[in-house]
Every structure is written in structure tokens, then in C-alpha cells.
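A student in our group prepared the protein record below, which I am reviewing. Thanks in advance; the entry in question is below.
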Amino acid sequence: MQSLRRPGGQQFDVPKEVPGCLPFMKPEDYQFFGFLLNEENEEEVSPEEQKERKIMKLLLKVKNGTPPQRKTALRQLTDKA
């Protein structure tokens, strides 16, 4: 992990590699999507938190993913909205 410091003085620990099938995250994205990097067991979190994590992963794919990832994620979001 490396540390990045934003102009406002806020510091983020940025991993060199994003785990799983998540797209690359920009340093400014860590304040919104950083909790997705926590390696928690899916069975240990509540169903509501599982749903929130899935939605946030799809949003990250729409924001920073490759065109096929974006298309698939956006389709999943609209179909299940």
C-alpha cells in the first residue's frame, strides 16, 4: 500500500492493486468506494449491507469500467431498479 495526500490534507491509503473484478479506482474514488476493498466474508455481513455493496460495485463499474463492464453493470442496475 502507498499513501496519497490530497490537496486538502486528507490522506488515503491506496492499494497498488484492486482485488476481485473491480475496475481501477482513482484516488478520489476511495472516499466513496474504499469500503469495497475490505476483504469481509459475504456471509458475515447483513443482507442489507450485501445489497449496498453489490449496488456500489455496479456503480463503480459504470463509472470506471471498460465499455463492456459499463454496459453490463448499467443493464443490471436498470433491470433491478
About this structure: The two ends are 36 Å apart (CA to CA). The helical segments are 30-33, 47-64, 67-79.
